[in-house]
Amino acid sequence: MSDPRRTSSKRVTLEEVARVAGVSRATASRVVNGVATVDATIRAAVQNAIDATGYVPNLAARSLVTRRADAIGLVLPEESRLAGDPFFETVIRGVMSVIGPSGVHLVLMTMDTNTRDQVVSDLRRGRLDGVILIHTDRDDPLPRQLIEANHPVVMSSRPLHPLPVTYVDVDQTAGGALAAQHLMSLRRNRIVTIAGPQHTSAGQDRHTGFLDAVADPDLPWTEGDFTRESGETSMVHLLRAHPGLDAVFAASDLMAQGAMTVLRATGRRVPQDVAVVGFDDSSAALACDPPLTTVRQPVADMAAEMARLLLARVADPDAPPTRVVFEPTLVVRGSA
Amino acid sequence: MSDPRRTSSKRVTLEEVARVAGVSRATASRVVNGVATVDATIRAAVQNAIDATGYVPNLAARSLVTRRADAIGLVLPEESRLAGDPFFETVIRGVMSVIGPSGVHLVLMTMDTNTRDQVVSDLRRGRLDGVILIHTDRDDPLPRQLIEANHPVVMSSRPLHPLPVTYVDVDQTAGGALAAQHLMSLRRNRIVTIAGPQHTSAGQDRHTGFLDAVADPDLPWTEGDFTRESGETSMVHLLRAHPGLDAVFAASDLMAQGAMTVLRATGRRVPQDVAVVGFDDSSAALACDPPLTTVRQPVADMAAEMARLLLARVADPDAPPTRVVFEPTLVVRGSA
DNA sequence: CTGAAAGCGCTTACAG
DNA sequence: CTGAAAGCGCTTACAG
Questions:
Q1: Straight-line distance from CA B33 to C1' D13, in Å?
Q2: On chain B, which terminus has fewer CB atoms closer than 10 Å, C or N?
Q3: Where does the HTH lacI-type domain start and stop, copy by copy (chains A, B) (predicted)?
């Protein structure tokens, strides 16, 4: 046990540990770093010295020579896109579940004003070992820039333009198809859909997967931006043009939630009059009333996988890029 | 403009900048750090050399001598308590809004297994300059331990046991009173309340503030844990014992949301039959149908303030502890 | 205002 | 298996 009073004492260095243990600084360093070749008795002596002095290594000094920061960045979209979306909290939890225990620091950043420059310079100056990019805009130059400088990067979805990058995604197309099949099995035939932003791969793929499965190229649809507000406006528009609709697929749970509010406000019952299917299986799905039938993507697992892949790339920056694609599943609840 | 090809070139050091500029390393360092006393022409020369070489300072080396990590920790509750609660995302956003632009790293941690040890050692070894503690349990030994070691700490609420610590809070008691006054002004007289956990200051203070204002010591109540699920169970219990109730105050929006689901399921209309008031004004309030009348605490602003206070403490660790208490406001929407 | 020099606390070839 | 020594890239008194 270390003397608790030592906790607030002056910084103790390896030098001191070595002195107390009667060995060289090099040997003390080897014990601290678990180098296997150290003699057992010496190891014990050093361990005692460490405990007695309450030594903790200075990471900056170590970092200076190892050139590792033991920190990775998690880059989220702009601050304004975070509000009210449970997706990001889930991503954070998933990443944390693998990063936390490893002792590596998880540094959070949002894509605001000078974040791009900061990411690049943090990586270059060895303050960050790698970054996870969440929902980076398709024409953001950052991913390519990082890849070209050979910095470890993992992205949260297939980039719209081909790029030799490691990413994790869910099979969005299959997810859209799952929603369509469910609605068709319910014998709904006046179906509409609120698509996600068509400038994102998720928005595009969910939409085409859905359309291909229903096999109706003229299916009415509008484009939302994944938020609840856009779900509401979209629903209003669709209802105006197609008052007789009997099913809606929204490409996000939040949009489905917004749609349900509007449906109820217009006196329609869910699911009796209109069946509603969402996408994500976020916490918003359970907050719906009735609870939302939705296409589940295992966000926390996906985020954990991103963290693992990044750690692997940090360990071996020249490994070829990897892609991991998860399968979506349909979660049937009350709304359809 | 720096030569883009330099971006991926070998690491360039201050030494090299100095050589290119024809000055000493010390002077180059002064320019990099914006020391005012450097001659204007020399400054320009160094600046040119920096641009030409694409120099970025090695933070580890700087950190080693300045003993500053330029990183602060944000310690959230255990991972399991994060899920589905929009509060934490708002805190993160608020903290980020002041930390982000400063170039200081925001390191995220959750109160899991070995986090306490890691926080202490990160602080001691100079890997973190200070920490913000969010909703730390009242009998967690960590805050006291950090305070005693004189590490910069800011907490998100008044500690239950007296502690010379800097914290930011909202006047919870006043918030409870606000809810009570609104319900009374609505002439509701069969009021019940779903309190927050009584082992937290927020749970206690909201409850006593509410009770004192309604001036009815026998008011029926149950204790939830701020989650939607606990709101549902609590509502079921209260309804069973008091089927004629006409108003409920829930100490969190999430609990209010759960309560509303149960009310609707039992055929009661909100607000006609039962008025509902929540607490937080989180994104969940708008997701309710009807939208929730709630006591707003300005979480993002409070989090930003915590960040500012922490930065101040890092700059001057011996300053006396500060307390900042925000005023809650009532936001009237459809539910009451 | 500027420079030479010491020093921050570690790791890691290199000898032995 | 261990130690002496060099070196990682900065900052900062201290002289001048």
A1: 17
A2: N
A3: 12-66
Amino acid sitting at position B127: R
Cα dihedral sign, A30-A35-A40-A46: positive
Q: Retrieve residue A63's tokens.
A: 């970092």
Which residue's CA shows the smallest distance to C1' of D5?
A26
C-alpha span between B313 and B319 (Å, rounded) = 7
Peptide bond into B4 cis (omega under 30): no
Average pLDDT rounded to a whole number, residues A300-321:
93
Measured between beta carbons, which residues in chain B are less than 8 angstroms from residue A60?
Answer: 60-61, 63-64, 69, 126-127
Which residues, including other chains, have CB under 8 Å from residue B100's CB and lie 6 or more apart?
A109, A110, A112, A115, B106
Show residues of chain A in contact with B281, CB under 8 Å.
Answer: none
Residue with tokens 């200081």: B104
The full set of domains in chain A, from first to last, is 4-57 (1.10.260.40), 71-170+300-327 (3.40.50.2300), 172-296 (3.40.50.2300)
Which secondary structure element, helix H or strand E, spans residue B166, and what is its range?
Answer: strand B166-170
Phi-psi region of A142 (alpha: psi -120 to 50; beta: other; left: phi over 0): alpha
Task: Decide: A268 and A276 in contact? Cβ < 8 Å.
Answer: no
Q: Tell me whether residues A71 and B105 touch, CB distance under 8 A.
A: yes
Which residues are CB-contacts of A54 (< 8 A; sequence separation ≥ 6)? Answer: A2, A3, A6, A7, A9, A12
- Round to whole Å and give the CA distance between B187 and B154: 41
Q: Cα dist. A55→A13, B118, B131, B148, B280 in Å? A: 7, 14, 21, 18, 44
Lowest mean pLDDT among A35-39, A263-267, B8-12, B188-192: B8-12
Residue-level length of chain B: 336
Q: What single DSSP character describes residue B280? A: E
Which residues of chain A make contact with B106, given a CB cutoff of 8 A? 107-109
Interstrand relation of B329-331 and B293-296 (parallel, antiparallel or unpaired)? antiparallel
Neighbours of A16 (CB within 10 A): 17
pLDDT of amino acid A97: 92
pLDDT of residue A10: 59
In 3D space, the residue among B87, B254, B8 whose CA is nearest the CA of residue A286 turns out to be B254
Exposure string over B105-117, b if 16+ CB within 10 A, otherwise e: bbbbbbbbeebbe
Give the closest residue to B169 by CA, choosing from B37, B303, B63: B303
- B window 188-217, beta carbon within 8 A of A: none
The pair of structure tokens assigned to B38 is 């450097």
Q: What is the mean pLDDT of chain B?
A: 90
> Which two tokens mark A34?
């678990």
pLDDT over threshold 80, residue A7: no
